[in-house]
Design a protein that fits this description.
By secondary structure, this protein is mainly α. The chain has a domain of 154 residues. It has 18 helices and 2 strands. It has a two-stranded antiparallel ribbon with strand order 1-2. The chain starts with 17 loop residues before the first helix and ends in a 12-residue tail after the last helix.
Length: 338
């Protein structure tokens, strides 16, 4: 009979290796990467490569400076996941130096200065993206109006004269186009038929959102993430936007349009589910996701940028410890207040 060593009670399950979790996250991202590659072209892969190389180099240097084993820590895959998440948030034709700047913030400051993996208060990818979005809004928010070939993408990213003019390959996002046209007094039927909105390729963004949803289901099936934070985001968006859409569908986008545009679906499965910068209690995760949704919708409605996912996540990261404290489950054998 086979035997195996056990620890004393309680008999907790063996911890899951960080590298296995990161591998599952990267696999879950593949459908979305494939859709972005089809819709935007080879620039997506170039940005992923630039961010990954930058993240690994900065992580290795930071760990050396801290006297830690750089090889083992870099091999866990967490820096790669941060880099890929960031790269998928920026425009595929952003200049090459955007990624090193963002990774310096994400890995060097937000992750390593706070103590490394498991100690960061804020989501590193969103922190890096927020910094470059505030500093260089036009460079990171102009998405291709069509798939760009490898040569043109490389020339544009690395600053060489491109074979096509920038204005002919760059466009606004659907949210940005919707915002601009709504400011001119146009209603949704008119916006949907406008050339600016059609050029933003809302169908490609909707297909990408579907790919993120598919990846999220993979993570749930693999038990990499819990359902609470994602459900908090999606349910809150539906609950808050459905009444306005039913009252006046010509002025207010539908819940599906909110979820299929911008980064809400991406954030719902790959950002708010971060176990380090998010909440740990089940009720806390629900409230965390709901808070991200509320803040994102508020920024979309009243903010100066079309999509405020990164800022909503960072604000809720700061509230996560308080939410966990407020939603602590009752300890077995103790009263409601522990």
């Amino acid at each position: 009979m086979k035997t195996f060593a056990t620890a004393g009670a309680p008999h907790l399950p063996a911890p899951v290796a960080v590298s296995r979790v990161m591998r599952d996250v990267l696999l879950a991202l593949l459908p979305g990467i494939a859709v972005q590659l089809w819709a935007c072209g080879a620039g997506v892969l170039i940005q992923i490569a630039l961010a990954t190389v930058s993240a690994l180099a900065i992580e290795a240097i930071a760990l050396r400076l801290r006297g830690r084993d750089a090889a083992r820590a870099v091999a866990d895959g967490s820096a790669v996941v941060t880099a890929v998440l960031f790269a998928l948030c920026i425009a595929p034709l952003a200049p090459w130096w955007i990624s090193p700047v963002a990774m310096l913030v994400a890995i060097g400051l937000v992750k390593q200065v706070y103590g490394g993996l498991g100690y960061n208060l804020f989501n590193p990818a969103m922190a890096g993206y927020a910094v470059v979005l505030l500093a260089f809004p036009r460079l990171v928010a102009q998405w291709p109006a069509a798939a760009v070939d490898l040569t043109t993408a490389a020339q544009t990213i690395f600053g060489a004269p491109a074979t096509a003019a920038w204005d002919s390959i760059a466009s606004a996002t659907p949210l940005d186009a919707l915002r601009q046209l709504a400011a001119q007094g146009q209603r949704l039927p008119e916006i949907g038929a406008a050339a600016l909105f059609r050029q933003s390729r809302p169908e490609a963004w909707a297909l990408t959102a579907g790919a993120w949803l598919l990846g999220g289901f993979w993570l749930l099936w693999r038990r990499v993430i819990g359902w609470q934070a994602s459900a908090g985001v999606l349910a809150t968006v539906i609950v808050l936007t459905l009444p306005f859409w039913l009252l006046d569908a010509e002025r207010h986008p539908s819940p599906l349009q909110h979820l299929a545009s911008g980064g809400l679906m991406f954030a719902a499965w790959f950002v708010v589910t971060d176990p380090v910068s998010g909440c740990t209690s089940p009720r806390g995760r629900l409230l965390f996701g709901a808070g991200v949704a509320v803040l994102t919708l508020a920024i979309r409605r009243w903010g100066n940028i079309p999509d405020g996912i990164a800022f909503a996540v960072l604000l809720m990261n700061a509230l996560a410890p308080l939410l966990d404290r407020m939603t602590r489950p009752r300890i077995y054998g103790h009263g409601p207040h522990g």
